[in-house]
Each structure stands twice: as C-alpha cells, then as structure tokens.
Amino acid sequence: MDEQVPRDFETLRATILDRRESLPKRIAQIAAYALDNPDDIAFGTAASIAASAGVQPSTLIRFAQQLGFDGFTSLQQVFRERLRERNSSYDERLQALRAKAEGGAGHRAIFDGFIAAASTSLNDISRTLDDAHLEDAISLLAKAQTIYVLAKRRSYPVASYIAYALGKLKIRNQLIESAAGLNAEMVGFATPADAVIAISFSPYAPATIEEARAIAEQGVPIVAITDSSFSPLAQFARVWFEVAEADFAGFRSLSATMALAMALTVGVGEKRRDAVRKRKA
Amino acid sequence: MDEQVPRDFETLRATILDRRESLPKRIAQIAAYALDNPDDIAFGTAASIAASAGVQPSTLIRFAQQLGFDGFTSLQQVFRERLRERNSSYDERLQALRAKAEGGAGHRAIFDGFIAAASTSLNDISRTLDDAHLEDAISLLAKAQTIYVLAKRRSYPVASYIAYALGKLKIRNQLIESAAGLNAEMVGFATPADAVIAISFSPYAPATIEEARAIAEQGVPIVAITDSSFSPLAQFARVWFEVAEADFAGFRSLSATMALAMALTVGVGEKRRDAVRKRKA
DNA sequence: GGCAATATGAAATAATAATTCCAATCCATA
DNA sequence: TATGGATTGGAATTATTATTTCATATTGCC
Q1: Which of A88, B39, B126, B187 is deepest in the core (most CB within 10 A)?
Q2: What is the rounded distance in angstroms from the CA atom of residue A17 to the CA atom of residue A134?
Q3: What is the CA radius of gyration of chain A?
Q4: φ and ψ of B68, to 5 deg
Q5: Could you write out the three-class secondary structure of B85-97?
Q6: In this structure, what are the phi and psi dihedrals at residue B38, rounded to the nearest 5 degrees?
Q7: Vertex B269 angle, CA B167 and A112, to 5°
Q8: Contact B255/A154, CB-based, under 8 Å?
Q9: What b/e sequence results for A79-101 when a residue is b if at least 16 CB atoms lie within 10 Å of its CB, and e otherwise?
C-alpha cells in the first residue's frame, strides 16, 4: 500500500487538513505550524523549524514520512516549489510593466502602459471602494422606474455599456446622448421616482454638470461616479463614488469605472429579481 | 575599510549592476546568473548553483565575499528574504477575489467578480499579445486617410472610446453607428486608402459582420479585434487580434479590449507624429 | 617577454543539517 | 491497573553542504 505523495502545495494542504483529526498530538502540532508558516518550512532547517514549532526535529521528519515523503527534505521541496511557482508579486509586475512602458521603445511600450494603468486602477478601486456606498447606490437604483444614464466624452463609453447591460437585464433605462440635442427635454421627463447614474471626471464636461444640476433640482436621486470630493457632481449626488483612474499617454483607463458600473448594473438586476421573488412568496 | 553590505535585494541588485564592469570574468558570470535566476540562488546549494552557472563553488563564495558578505550563506539570505517579502502572488489575489465573488454574499461579491474578470483579462492579453501584429496594425492604420470604427452592442463602448481618442489626437475617423440606419451608405464611402477597426465578439452582431464583409470587398483594409480564429471577422481582416475577455455574471470585461484599443489609437497618433517630423527634416 | 598580482579550479576540510536509533513515556484496552 | 502498541524526546550517526586551501592559470604592467 504505497501512499500518494502530494507533489504540489495545494494537494499537500488538502491532505493535511483531511487527516488532521487522526494525527498524533505532536505531529498535529507541526502540521498546524506548517500550514500557518509555510514560508518558514520553505527556508528553515529541520532544527530551526522544529524549535519554532516546539517539537523535536525527529517529529518533523516523522510528520513528513507520515505524509508519504521519504524525509523532511522532500517535504520541504513542496514548500519551496510553492514560492517558486507563484508569480512575481503584483507590484513587481506593475513596476516591470511601467518600466517597460517608460523606457521601452516601440508600440509594445504603449500597450504595456495601458495595461499598467488599468491594473493600477483596478487595484486602487478594489482597496478603496466602500461597501456601504455600493449597497446604498444599488438600493436607490433598484427602486427607480427608469434609470437615466448620463455621461459625455471620455465617460461616455461607460454609459453606453451600462445602457447595454441594463437593456439585457430588461431594466428600463434611458441613455442621455447629445446627438439630437434634445437632452434638456429628456432630462425634463425624469421624476423623483426615477434615478440617475451620472459619470464625469475632471475636466468635467459642462453639459454633464448642467444636466445633473437640472435633474437634481427636479428631485431625481443621482448616483455619481467621479474622481474627487470637489467634483461638482458630488454636490448633486445622493450617493457618490470616488474612482481614481490611472492614466497613460493622456488617456484615462476606464477599467475601474467599468467594473463599478457593471457591479451597480448587475446588483440592481439581482435586487429586482429578489424583490419579485419575495412578492411571489 | 568596511564595505556597506547590501541587506535587501534591490540594493544588492544595484550594487551588482554598478560594479559589473569591474568584476573578473567568472565572478561576472555568476553575477549575471544571480540576477537572471534569483530563485535558484534562493533555493539551490552552493554546488548546484555553481554548476548551473558554469563555475566552481569557490567562485560563488568569492562573489559573495566581494559584495561584502562573509560567505554564500549570508548572500543567500538576501535572495530568500526577497521571496518572503514579496506580496502574495497575483494568482493568489485573483483566487481570493474569485472565491469572495462566488461564495460571498451581497453586492460586494459582484463587484469583486468584475474586478477579478478584468484583472484576468488584462493578465491574459498581456501574455498573449503579439508585438508584430501590433506593429502591423498600427502601420496599417497610420496610413489611412480616414479610420472607420465598427462595433455594435457590447463592443460599442470600446468603439466609442476609440472614436473619442482619435478625435482628441486629431485623427480623422468615422464611428459607424446604427442610430440613423445609414450604415450602408457610410460604409460605401470608404476606399482602399482608408482603414477600419472592427470589434466583435461571439455571438457576433450580424450587422457588424455584414458591414465588415461589405467594406472588405471594397478593398478597405481591416484591423479586427475578436475572440477566436473562427470568428467571421478574422476572415475579412488584414490584421486581427485574439482577445479572450473573462466574463462575470454574463457580462464580458472590456478591459483588455480597451487597453488594446487605446494602444492602437495612441500608437497611430505617435506614428503620424513621427512621419510628420521626418517629412520636415 | 618576464614578473607580480590577481583570478580560477579542484580537492580537502570543517561546519551544518538530516536522519536514525533507542530508551522513556503516554495511552487505550482488557 | 497491568500490558502492548503507539508516540515522543534526545543523542548518536550519517549525509550533505559550505568553506578553505593550495596549486595552477591568467592577466596587466613594466
């Protein structure tokens, strides 16, 4: 009966967790230590690890053998592979990309710059987004009869994707475009039972600000996505999000804004479905 | 005269690069190997590393001593610290996000899902994009009198951002929208001196395919962004890019496509500027 | 071209670390 | 509570690995 020796860290981890109950006390002790301090196992010596875990070196070896390895050394390989295989850190990646984008020649450098900008933006928003704001915004939008989507220029692509997604989800919406010059009239139709998603970044398109002001004065609640608390949009908004998009070569990444916009859209869709289900029940 | 011993990897790297010129041949050889294969230094034994680098173990130790360490072991510590300190890997981050997105409750989970999808897409395209294709596409577009931008539905936001950016860069362009139903006529104006950026993902919008076919038959070169080599768009295109966008909750991330679109746009802008400069000189 | 200084290779040696072994202890079961 | 088996601790042993040493080769300099 030869054991199946775990060759990668995840399998090893699973195996350990699986057998946890049946392990003798000291072995269990080192098993817990190993999963909690995998880096120590990767770098330490049998003696140093054993000391840190409060057991004898021989116990460490018995642990390894019980898992099917022929000794501590082969167990350690698995922990080392884990460190090796994991890609270079997020920051290193970004730094490398940015370095290539700045120093590098050719068009690949430009591409890398945009990738770096997008990654940075995603990273930032993932850290800074306030869950409560997200909930508030979704509640507000879910109650709306019609969702108006307001954005010009560089923010317009986001608005058009929101409109597309809302349409797919069968949520009534109205994209306020400038093409026909009928924006004032469109805006006039909105009532306090509706809601607006407004998106604008510095330098704020005057039309967006004007329309947001008008619509806010009609009592229509606004969810704003903008780039600072000084943004005029933030003044009019019931809920607003600060999204810091990195830029490259003068063009802002839209990836963070897009992600937020999609989360709002799909969130509203889910909330509506839940509401319907509740009403039925 | 006591040396300043580098204690972190970055300092060490700088020190090595700084002295590179003045190092003896074999020492330089191992120095280069160390910077190229830092993971091997972190985990290997003096003998194994020396063998991989094609030198004697003693050379490795001399290298360490020349840097101010008292032996290979202390040099190795620096390489180990580097692995320890670097943040959790990119993949681990993504996995965590995806886990939260799948298991998690509430709308934050949705948001995390979109962030994860966007990150994955950026990661993928960064790995797979072919530099030569990028150069080809940019050359082709830079020569065009007018750049037509063709995309419907979920790809439309990308097209609108391209149009916006081209406009900013004062590059003549025409967005082929469906609003007025004049697409056939618009397409008819294009000549072989122009070019098209066409974007379409499965399920391909029939209108996009039809217009792409028509325009290709007029001899207008097409740069396509699509999702597989089986895409009908790829048939008509002079240059085409395969972009695998991850999706979440049924909506595709656009971040990779956006990054590529921006790189094309800005690349064309640069190429035009260069051409103008050359003509002046 | 010859000399000194420096660099390199290879093997011997010292250090360190993993593993084994055995006695002591613990624990479950009758 | 006695007994057998499993578990553990600690030291002895073996293995691996870093380091040192010294002979040889190379390089720069006069």
Answers
A1: B187
A2: 36
A3: 27
A4: 105, -5
A5: HCCCEHHHHHHHH
A6: -60, -30
A7: 110
A8: no
A9: bbebbeebebbbeebbeebbebb
Do A272 and A179 sit in the same domain of this protein? Answer: yes
A134 reaches B (C-beta below 8 A) = yes
Residue A62, CB, strand D, below 7 Å:
yes
Between CA A46 and CA A24 the distance in angstroms is 19
Q: pLDDT tens, A236-264? A: 999 999 999 998 988 999 999 999 999 99
**Chain B closest CA to A164's CA: distance in Å?**
7
Question: Reduced to 3 states, what is the DSSP secondary structure of residue A256?
Answer: helix
Residues 17-76 (B) near nucleic chain D, CB < 7 A: 25, 45-47, 57-58, 61, 64, 70-74, 76
- Work out the minimum CA distance from A26 to partner chain B, whole angstroms: 26
Please say whether the beta carbons of B112 and B104 come within 8 A.
yes
Banded pLDDT at B137 (limits 50, 70, 90): very high
Residues A40-86: pLDDT tens digits? 899 999 999 999 888 899 999 999 998 888 889 999 998 988 887 76
Dist. CA A151–CA A183, nearest whole Å: 12
**Domain membership flag for residue B50:** yes
**Matching residue, tokens 């509640």:** A139
Q: With beta carbons less than 8 A apart as the criterion, state whether B125 and A115 touch.
A: yes
Structural domain boundaries, residue A159: 130-280
Alpha helix locations (H) across chain A?
A: 9-19, 25-36, 38-43, 46-53, 57-66, 72-85, 90-103, 106-128, 131-142, 156-168, 183-189, 206-217, 232-236, 255-280
Please check whether residue A158 touches B, CB under 8 A.
yes
Q: Check whether residue A268 has its CB closer than 7 Å to nucleic acid strand C.
A: no
Q: Which token pair is B134?
A: 């990028």
Query: Which of B85, B109, B141 is at the close of a domain?
Result: B85
Residue B103 falls inside a structural domain: no
Q: Which CATH number covers residue A68?
A: 1.10.10.10
Is the CB atom of residue A19 positioned under 7 angstroms from any atom of strand D?
no
B223/B264 Cα distance (integer angstroms)? 10
The residues, ordered by sequence, that sit 6+ positions from B58 with a Cβ below 8 Å of its Cβ are none
Same structural domain for residues A57 and A134? Answer: no
Q: Between residues A165 and B107, which one has the greater pLDDT?
A: A165
Closest residue to A156, CB basis, from B119, B160, B254: B160
Task: Give the position of tokens 């032996």.
Answer: B71
